[in-house]
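User: What would this chain look like folded?
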Amino acid sequence: MGKRKRRDHGPTEWAEQIRILRQELGISQGELARKLDCSAMTVSRWENAQLPPTARYYIELGKLAGKQDCWFYWGRAGLQSSDVIRALTERERKQFPARLEEQMELAAAGGGAKHESARRPKLVPIPVLQATVGTHGGQGDRHDNLSYIPAREILGAPAEWCPNPGYTSLLRVRGRSMEPLIRNGDIAAVDSSQTDRTNLDGKIVIVTNEEKGLCVSRLRRYPKFDVLESENRDYQSVVLGKRSGWRIIARVLWWISAAP
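Assistant: Here's the prediction, encoded as structure tokens.
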């Protein structure tokens, strides 16, 4: 399947992507409806942005989209890559792209002479995603899931810095509300397998919201509610409730800054 043209990640991007998917499959709205066990009117409402699909239909649309675009739909269903991979059979897992560390060779840097492989530091390749995350209270790129964002380049990082390398990626930070901890222009390493709030109290996390997009903040847990806080106390905290629209999609492991 050819590379699919994407629009900006606006609130109704899902409608355009469903229409493009159907056209690339070469089927009518009625035929897509039969594949998904729904009505042609439902498909029409999806494509006209009148009604978003339920999680069940997003999952089925992801299966039809194939490995290139499946995460767009599965992310809309609220699934993380770790959720899906655990549910796959061994045969199904082979249909997914090989892990990055199996696709590339890492050269030892810092010296002109060859190093013995046994003495080389253990590095893992981490993708730098084509997305920017805003700091608390700011605006980031609109994405529901990190798994389907393309990478612009690869950076090597020490293995001990990445406990779950298959779920680790790098994001550029924009904004100043997390200073002096995380500064404007920093690159943050994030782990998308760590999303359970019970293990993230006091940790820096990546959250997403349909209006604000990707944001970085600190999670604080209290007996009756959870909140997102900035390092700069001039910014108001955000209560994480069912109606807030915020969802945790990764934990920040570490970050790097450019030399002054």
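Helices lie at 13-25, 29-36, 40-47, 55-65, 70-76, 81-87, 90-93, 100-103. If you want, I can go into more detail on any region.
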